[in-house]
Amino acid sequence: MKRIRYIDFIPVLMLLLSPILGFGQLDTVMHSEGYYIKMNNTLNLRLDLDNDVRSFEFDSGNLSYSVLPNTNLRMAIAYNYRFLTFKVGFSPKFLSSGDTGEKGKTSVFRLSLDMFIKDFYQSFDYDQTKGYYIDGIEAGIPGPNAGNDEFLILPDMRTLSITGVTRYRFNENYSFKALVNQTEIQIKSAGSFVPELRYGFWQIKQPSGPQDIESFYVLANAGYHYTYVLSENWYANLGLSTGLGIEFNKIDTRLPDMEITQRTTSAVFDLNTQIGIGYNSRRLHAGTALIGSAISRNDESAIQFDNVRGYFKIFVGYRFDPPRFLVSAMDWVESKNPFDKK
Question: Could you give the domains of the chain?
């Protein structure tokens, strides 16, 4: 008998509660220049779906193969109110491939926090994936074989990343909130030059594998983001950023008779693109985007992330009237904000 988890009921619960919570009069504020509408007094609930699950390659010169997760999709539930966004991501069972006997089981967990303070946009992200399998290697190679002749299963392999991004917009007519957490609606086309600082820590651990890797990086990027308003509720967006940074790496290599620890420092060139289209009305908002990234680095590790990546994102959300306790709590928080509120 299939076990049903409480988290599977969240989208259904949101739908059932919408007639109760969602049909009040929305209180909106027009931006002083008329470029966007502030939806500060609404609580946004959003469902996200993407395929941003990392894979990587192993290459020791004599032997090379792919290390892949046994899932290509990740779901997340986001809660947005005023300047704050909180997101929980996971890998639901109903999106699994159904071949866990051959490739093993992959679990994904993600926590994200986004904050907007005046012209600054700050995001933090915790992402963990556990359970991989090896493809592109001939049977008979020593390893944790799970009884099949095609794939080698690595159930205890784990990737972990803790990252942050700090951005600043120069044009106050461009709304980051309309693009990121839908607490504003862009009604006139606008763009902005956006410098950003990216930083983070990522780790690969595999007790029975040849290497463990830890890396800390800092990148300084600059780019431009633009939102083109197609009609009253439809918009398209485009973003491009590029920059340079540095990585500090620690590589532990296990040999039959010894373990070697190697520390390296690498220069990094970074390029990021995003193109999307969306619908943003007073209640309902939805959209999709294609996101790409390319990283150039001097990587001396045998385990390498895919340095050129592309993935999609789909989201749909609804705005509710917030409960009174949430309004009072956020009023108190904003009253302590030393910055001028926009």
Answer: 6-56+155-335 (2.40.128)
